[in-house]
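> tool_call: predict_assembly(chains=three)
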Amino acid sequence: MSLTATSFDWVRELVRKESAIVLQPGKEYLVEARLLPIARQMGLPDVGKLVDTVRTRPSADDTRKIVEALTTNETSWFRDGDPFTALTSTVLPALLSARGANERLQIWSAACSSGQEPYTIAMLLDDALPNAASRVSITATDLSREMVQRTRAGRFSQLEVNRGLPAPMLVRHFTRAGTEWEVSANLRRMVNATECNLAAPLPRMGPFDVVYLRNVLIYFDLPTKQSILRRVRDLMRPDGWLFLGAAETTLGVDDSWERVVIGRSSAYRPLKGK
Amino acid sequence: MSTIDTGARRRTTDPRPVITDLIDGDTILSIAGDAWISLVGEDEVLVPLPGPLPGDILSSWVDVVGPWTGSVVLTTARATAEELSRALLRESAPEVLDDEDVADAFGEIANVVGGSVKAALPGPSALSLPQVGNAPLVRNPGDVCRVDVVWRGEPLTISVQGALPPLPVPSPTRENEVSL
Amino acid sequence: MRALVIDDSRAMRRIVTGILTDLGYEVRDAGHGGEGLEVLNEGWAPDLATIDWNMPVMDGLQFVSAVRSNPAWRRMTMMMVTSESEHTQIVRALAAGAHEYMIKPFTADAFRDKLALLGLLPQEVAL
């Protein structure tokens, strides 16, 4: 063990402050195992030296790496499947009848993490449309450079594909790549991943027909939530559809949206004139 | 149609792969780490540190038979194998674990690790049922990829080792050949 | 709801049984496919069978085929739970009639995700 009690306490406090997750005493081995790859990557011999280095010369990038290594959990594919069911049952038919045959549908996965959400959308559309690759473009963005790179690579560990990806979809859209699974080139071509900070002015993108902005707003205070929703709305088509996380709503935050119930989920659409 | 495969062509142009050409220690460590997280417990980590194994050890393994043929072997102190079995069974662990309980649980871990190792190797391959006892002998020291780890402070090794002796030095005559 | 857990490893049967009983399932188990068929032949009708692949006596794929050949058991959902994880193996199992496929190792969360996909996650714990 290279980790002293003081270093462990520093890591605990950092993680608590940044993620509200509390590491119980006795988790020294966990910290050691998860942070060792970061230490090695930085050319340091052990985790103790890593903590010393980051403590004496703090950098947002290193801090984020440490917090992400200790807090990331695998994301599910279809676990909260209702917003995806709504896409194929209601949203897609509505868009296909409203748009011209040559108009490309633009979909935005606004916090794409390691890519499960944009590829879930891509798989559904590929199964629903004969010419999905030329008809649809999916923009995937995330704050984290590492997550954007992972999304671009389209590779998932065994544990990740076990999380709610239906086996028929796995065999149809993925191939084995060593110990990992790689999403098909066809789907990767549909997804365009780039870095984007939702809390800052957004790059020129869109206009989007559908936006998935799930489990992002919960991390921000009310004024930031309001400005994010406003900026997202500016990048959407007037008849577009916005999906939020199951615990999120525009109600009481921004009154320029209309809530539409689709099956067991809700979508939000820009109100005209607001 | 039937042809007699003497193996001569395969041996001269396409030598049998050794495990280190097919998988590395980091991959084995990550496979074992995933198995531990899901079978033993979410915070149960394997730290890649070498430690001396004691005298009283136990192994569990599965055989992989395919383009590469060998075994995926876990070896640790008998007491650690028991602790591992207990961790696996959690609240349903009996008060006193008998040999069969340990063989079953420790064997299942070898099965899970072996399944993932097999998937990372060129296929098609078949996986045997797990076995527990004294590990199969290393037949070819050049066909072994071994990872030493520490779990809850106790040393454990994961060895992916070929089952076949080294190939004879290629020779233009067929007299030195051994059957595969 | 009822589940039949088929695995030759007692440890694995206990792990899967633990996850399912926590969700409110009534569980019976079997050490290989043949024992699994005996349970079904008694008339005990599970909603779900979780099936290991490599087992002595009768393996998981043979069990799936046997269940598929009997229309009386058509209602039962079958999920392979196995360390066999190649693409071709998953295709074989689905072609034989398995509905889902869970690769070992898995976490309890991953198991619940699969049940949710199959519509077999009891509503009260569906979050």
